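Lecture 7 notes: from sequence to structure.

We start with a single chain of 499 residues. Read the sequence below before looking at the structure.
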Amino acid sequence: MKVNVNMLLSSLVFWGCGQSEKKEHYSAVDAHIKGVELIKTAANKHGDFYSDSKSIAFEVVCDKYYHPTQSQVPFHPMVPGFWNRLVWVSPNTEEEILNSKMKAGSYVFHDVAVLQNKERISYNVNTKTYEENSFEFVKNLDIVPQTYLQKTLENQASIRATGVSGQGNLPTFMVEAFFDNAQHKIWLNKDTTLVKVENLRHSSTYGLRIRSYTFKENREINGYLLPSEISYSYTNNVSGNVVSTFRLNPVKEETVTEFLEEISSYSAGDHSYRKKAEVTKLADKIHLIENVTSSSLFWSYNILFAEFNDYVLVTEAPVSEDISKLVIDKIRETIPNKPIRFIVQSHHHSDHIAGIRQYIDNEITIVTTPATSKVIEKINKSYQYTDRDHPEPRFQIVDHHLNLSDDSLTARVIDLGPTLHSDEMVITYFPREKIIFQADLVNYGEWPINNDISVEFAEKIKELKIPVNMIVGLHGQSMNKDEVEQFLNGTLKNKFGNQ
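Now the structure, written as C-alpha cells:
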C-alpha cells in the first residue's frame, strides 16, 4: 500500500485546526461511557424532531459563499442568496418535506422531496413531474444539530470522549465517533449543546475531504434548539477551502401547505423510453451507451464512442470509476480489436470527471481544455491510499479546435470558449455525420429548453455555421434533425420523459 505522506500531512493540518486541545486520559471504557452520556445529553437538549410528536418548519438560506478558484472548482458553484432549503417534519402525519432550491450558473435546481409512510416522493419543480424512490433525505440534512447527534447515536460503539478544548473560560467537551463511512470530531459547550463538528472521509476522486460546521446563536423553534447561523467549510486538495455561511429562520407551516398545493398537480415522470446501459448505433462507426447508470429517475448519463481505423474515441468520464469500468468493458465488447486512444472531457464538473482515473490508468489521452486538465492533475495526485500506481495523465489540449481524423471518420473537438455553465467547454462534432455530442448545454427530455445556457448554446452553434442533423447529450434524449432545427430557431417545445 502506498501513502502520499506530504499530502496527507498537509490535509491533516485542517483537522481540528484553530482549537487549543487538552486530551484527557480516560480508560477505553470510561471514554466510551462519558462520550455516549455527552451525546445523549446534547440530543435531549436540542430535541429529536424525528421521533417527537411536535412538527417543525424552518428554512436554511445561503448568506455568503467563497471559493478561491471558483472557475476551476469541480462542482457547481452556489450563488449566495439562491441556495434555500425549507424543512418540515410532521411526525403526526408521518410526513417530512424538504424543499431545495439552488442556482448554479444559469441553472436553477428546484426539487421538493416528500416522505410519506417511509416512502420518498421527489418532485421536480422545473419539469412539473414526480418520482417515487426509497432514499431518506431529511436525515441527510447534516447541517442541523438534530441530524448530526442522532446519526452519532446510531453507532454508539464508536463514541469516545477525548478531552476538553477551547480558550479562557469557554471550555468545550470533545467527542469522536465514526459513522457514514467517516471519522467525526464533535465539540459540545459547557451546557452540552453542539458547537462544532468536523468529519474526515476519503473519496476516490478527491482524496481526503474535511467538512466543518460551526453552530452559532442557538434559539428555540417550536420547542427545538436550533442555531441561527451556521458556518460551513469544505476542504480538499482539489478544490481548496470552500467557505459558506447559512442562516436558519423559522417558517410558518402555512408556507409548507402552499408548496403541497403547488405540487399536487404534478404528473408521474415516465422514463420507460430509456435503455439500461445498452449500446445503440447512431451512425456508421458512432455508438451510444444510453443511460449508463440504468437510472429510472430524473437524470441519466449517456456515453458516445466512435470507431476509427486503428482506435476508439470516447466522450466523458462521469459519476465514478465503476461506471468508467463498465463503459470500457462495453466498448471492448462492441469493438474488441481496437484500443481506446482518446477520451474527450468537456469540462471540469465533478459528475463529469469522477471516473477519469480509469482512463489515466489505461494510459488513454485526455482531450480537454487547460483548466480542466489542471483539475484532473489535482484529482490524480489527491489519491492518498492506493494498491496500484497511477501513471501521470496524458493530455491533448484543445486550442480553438482539434481534429482527430483518418479516412473512415473525423471528430472535431471544438472549444466554445466561456459559457454560462463553465468558463471552458468543448463539444465533439462529427462533420460527415453532422452529429454533435455535448454535456450540460442542453438536456433534452430532462430539463426545460428555455434556459439561458441552452439558448446561448443554440447561438454558438449558429455562429460556428456547421450543419447539424443530431444533438446528443450526456444527459437526456438525443435531438433528431427536425428537433435540432426547432431548437436553433427557438421553437422547440419542452418534453419530459415519454411526453
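Residues 27-268 form a domain with the outer membrane lipoprotein receptor (LolB), chain A fold (CATH 2.50.20). Keep this in mind for problem set 3.
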